[in-house]
Design goal:
The structure is a homotetramer of 135-residue chains. With 135 residues, the first copy, chain A, is of the alpha+beta class. Chain A has 3 helices and 6 strands. In chain A, strand 5 and strand 6 form a beta hairpin. The longest helix of chain A has 16 residues. Chain A is elongated. Chains in contact: A-B, A-C, A-D, B-C, B-D, C-D. Strand 2 of chain A pairs antiparallel with strand 2 of chain D, so a sheet runs across the interface.
């Protein structure tokens, strides 16, 4: 995935005060919550859900995350969380970047998802089908 | 339940930095996590678990919490979380107080638990059996 | 405060998947986050902020919470978080109820706030001034 | 940093029930909390603290995290969180791996820390001094 690929989904999120730690900035782990929430909202907007997949014996799981922290967010700030999607064999790579409302980068992340079918890692065909509009 | 009843379980817990919010004190919601963790450790020490109950069709759920915040905890501090148990008909009342290591009160809480059996609220007989040593 | 008093603020919130625990329902502590977030958004909408107060040496702190859990929320559900405000001497009592979108009660809570001025508990005059439109 | 370098610190941690999500496994973001808590306990054991550094105008911040999820943890499980430290110019690289008690890998992570001195990124000399025993 190159950074020139277009984003296919974006979500506005606002920092909640309890997400800010004693240093006055959003705690590093909270960004993974933002990223996950963005993926779920993307899936829901695309007409399916991780939970529905689960009921069908298909379990997408996070296998790797790489995240760079560029600019911290603080109390009361807003952000725009953007998402790209790319397939690399059995791995679905979400390029997820968060920006301030005026376009400054906050975090840049890559999240690898693989899918398990009935407990075994799959080649990703069913997930590819679900995401076909975006690949 | 009167405050003269003895505690039947206690657990040492240490504040994790991410639990402290921008005001430099443990966020009010985090104490409910400490209280829940204490109840679960108590149950485990007593030889059973909420999850095992769940598998047997018995679901203890929190129906009410009353918590008074007396003294805030901050970065790096330790606490002792203590627990009493009392039954009031179908309701199991956990008296849960948290103290600093030198005995100063941090929070004082009462947590009401009722049990659902196969989806219906129960009279609590099975839960009473599980807790009989402590009632 | 009686339940016949009108709500003065409401906020739509959607459950984030990570807020749901292993039992498939929103964890009890998470509701305190929803309630806190609602208070902060209320204050912001009313033109001031807890953090601004803090800079002015005024620290509103939660002294007591009473919360009843009536109906659990699960994955993907939405809620409406409503708020009333009432003063009882130095204590500002927020009546905070959360409902499903079709009006079914989820939790009903009372949150007591007192304000510290330069480290000492105050009679609440400055906070009353900030909230005067709502009292 | 190669994987043959020895670990210099380890911490036993037990999963708390609220850290487990609806899929029955510890949520991906929670591992960053475990890693952060481990770093802080390491620093405390080594005789200094992030908060003390902060008071001295030195702010270590996380600039990048790479984490691989190998084996999920569930309700009631225990783990051992281990840590290595390595310096690469201004960057302090923590190699942080979490294992089950019997030695199976749970997550493997690399956490990059840089230090800001009075608001500007530093060459890391003061942090190197603090960590000199471990570099």
């Amino acid at each position: 995935m190159t950074s020139s690929e277009p984003y296919i989904f974006e979500l506005a999120i606002k920092v909640r005060d309890y997400e800010v730690d004693a240093e006055g900035i959003v705690n590093n782990a909270v960004y993974l919550h933002y990223l996950e929430h963005t993926r779920h909202e993307f899936c829901e907007a695309a007409g399916f859900s991780f939970r529905q997949m689960h009921h069908e014996g298909l379990d997408p799981v996070v296998s790797k995350i790489e995240i760079r922290y560029i600019r911290p967010l603080g109390l009361g700030q807003s952000m725009v969380s953007k998402l790209r999607l790319h397939r690399r064999g059995p791995v679905f790579v979400f390029g997820q970047d968060i920006f301030t409302p005026d376009g400054q980068a906050v975090v840049k992340a890559t999240v690898d998802i693989v899918s398990f079918e009935n407990g075994k890692i799959s080649r990703g065909e069913r997930l590819a089908q679900a995401f076909h509009k975006f690949l």
